[in-house]
């Protein structure tokens, strides 16, 4: 089957439209993504990316999503792999194809959780050439902690470092945390929604527990709005206007810390919150932790995603 396009924006230009029933299911999928905490761009993009799949089902005369056969899904995916973009004239790259696979898996999870059907999925992710990840040495991590302000807002800076380095969270995972997700008594952070669509518990050590306790006791109360007080579902990280911190807020905090280190080498490199995640994974591997345990800690769906640290740990 040849599509006019398969990108989110161009999917709207496909002449054929999903049936009313399928449109209702896609609308429900969009609402489900929003409810479980995906970003606005993902909530908008993923249902649109499912439209070519729905049109493929219609072509195959499949009117129900109850146990869609693997052969049908495979033929749809093969069409994707052999489709050339009308803009570039090139085939979809492996990362884009993996995005479609992820979307199919999420859509299948939605169907199963809402008792609307299931897909027989067994499509392996495409191999992607991963660019070399930036990793900080332990001494550089110590410098970042040492650069935290001695003023009250330094408590928030330490809490951010302990989330993104100590717990290895993705940027979006950290800003989506609520108060009841940071369980001081159990020394666990509960990540409700990750990039892979799976929840997980992430342990933290005593020093990180102290950072979180001091932030919650002495700094965060000054940022709380009256409507937030006492609410376990209020954001854990707050910005200066009493709202949930954004990815940009976290990135700016990290840049400020880097500038304060006066480490010119550190300042010349492209350091992001994800660098902290790469760094803790590499340090854990060098300390002797098993790759499978690190994979669970990071919330990777596939062990192959974690294997990059085998190479990085030899260099740091």
UniProtKB/TrEMBL annotation:
Keywords: DNA integration, DNA recombination, DNA-binding. The keyword Ribosomal protein does not apply. Signal peptide: none annotated. Pfam families: Phage_integrase (PF00589). Residues 131-316 form the Tyr recombinase domain. Residues 20-112 form the Core-binding (CB) domain. InterPro entries: CB (IPR044068), DNA_brk_join_enz (IPR011010), Integrase-like_cat_sf (IPR013762), Integrase_catalytic (IPR002104), Integrase_recombinase_N (IPR010998), Tyrosine_recombinase_XerCD (IPR050090). Belongs to the 'phage' integrase family. This is Recombinase XerD. It comes from Fulvivirga kasyanovii.
């Amino acid at each position: 089957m040849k599509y006019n396009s398969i990108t989110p924006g161009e999917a709207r230009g496909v002449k054929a439209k999903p049936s009313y029933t399928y449109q209702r299911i896609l609308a429900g999928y969009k609402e489900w993504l929003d409810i479980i905490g995906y970003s606005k761009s993902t909530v908008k993009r993923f249902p649109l990316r499912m439209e070519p799949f729905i049109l493929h089902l219609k072509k195959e005369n499949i009117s129900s999503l109850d146990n869609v056969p693997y052969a049908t899904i495979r033929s749809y995916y093969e069409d994707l792999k052999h489709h050339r973009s009308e803009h570039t004239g090139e085939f979809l790259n492996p990362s884009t194809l993996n995005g479609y696979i992820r979307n199919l898996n999420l859509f299948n999870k939605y169907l199963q959780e809402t008792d609307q059907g299931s897909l027989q999925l067994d499509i392996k992710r495409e191999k992607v050439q991963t660019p070399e990840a930036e990793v900080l040495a332990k001494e550089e991590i110590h410098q970042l902690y040492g650069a935290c302000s001695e003023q009250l807002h330094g408590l928030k800076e330490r809490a951010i470092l302990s989330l993104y380095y100590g717990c290895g969270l993705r940027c979006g995972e950290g800003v989506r945390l609520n108060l009841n997700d940071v369980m001081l008594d159990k020394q666990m952070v509960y990540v409700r929604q990750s990039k892979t669509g799976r929840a997980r518990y992430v342990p933290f050590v005593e020093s990180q527990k102290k950072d979180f306790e001091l932030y919650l006791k002495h700094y965060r109360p000054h940022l709380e709005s009256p409507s937030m007080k006492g609410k376990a579902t209020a954001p854990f990280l707050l910005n200066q206007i009493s709202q949930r911190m954004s990815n940009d807020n976290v990135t700016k905090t990290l840049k400020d810390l880097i500038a304060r280190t006066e480490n010119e080498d550190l300042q010349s490199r492209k350091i992001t919150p994800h660098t902290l995640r790469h760094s803790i994974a590499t340090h854990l591997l060098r300390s002797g932790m098993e790759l499978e345990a690190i994979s669970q800690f990071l919330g990777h769906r596939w062990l192959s995603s974690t294997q990059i640290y085998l190479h990085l740990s030899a260099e740091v």
